Hints:
Blueprint: E1 2-5, E2 8-14, E3 24-29, H1 38-47, H2 50-58, E4 68-72, E5 80-85, H3 96-113, E6 118-121, H4 133-151, E7 156-161, H5 164-178
Parallel strand pairs: 2-7, 3-5, 3-6, 6-7
Antiparallel strand pairs: 1-2, 4-5
Helix pairs in contact: 3-4, 4-5
The protein binds ligand AR6.
Amino acid sequence: MQVRVNNCLIELAQGDITHQDTDAIVNAANSRLAGGGGVDGAIHRAGGPSIMEETDRKYPAGCPTGAAVASAAGDLKAKYVFHAVGPVWKGGLSGEPELLASAYTSCLQLAIEHDCSSIAFPAISTGVYGYPRDLAAEHSLTAIRDFLAEYDRPQLVRLVLFDPGAYGAFARVLEDMAE
Ligand code: AR6
């Protein structure tokens, strides 16, 4: 499903983010950029060692929660990987919504800086980091919509949801936005 914001589209897809051919794909990283499971493991496995070599060299101090850094995409179809660090869910009163929104908008800003017209996101923080799925859908899609309303770029923002439950949660929120 798709929703238009200005001249841009927000689109939902189900599947594996490593297969996306958007200009950029987003990694759900940790603040040490040390690799891990979930999306992070899948991206480093599919993209090859050059991605970690580049992030180790360029960002030895890692990346703070709520921010993102860019690397090339190794063997992946995308041109760039933006490594975003979402918050660990601690009950919702530790700034999690703002930090999650900021992880998304940092990537959208990087997309503009790197001249990317399309970007694919996973559902940041909803795996190991434990962010409740329905809240993540609402907070993530609101951040994306507000960014596109202000900047009118990038042209395509795709959310790639791994399983049908996550797809359903994001679809419910996006349907409400379309009304
Ligand atoms: N494509 C798309 N979505 C995926 C894929 C995939 N290949 N694999 C998993 N998901 P997670 P987080 C979904 O845990 O919660 C790592 O170890 C998954 O079902 O990857 O931000 C990092 O190094 C879930 O809905 O990211 C960090 O330490 C969503 O992607 C930590 O996990 C995010 O799950 C980050 O945790």
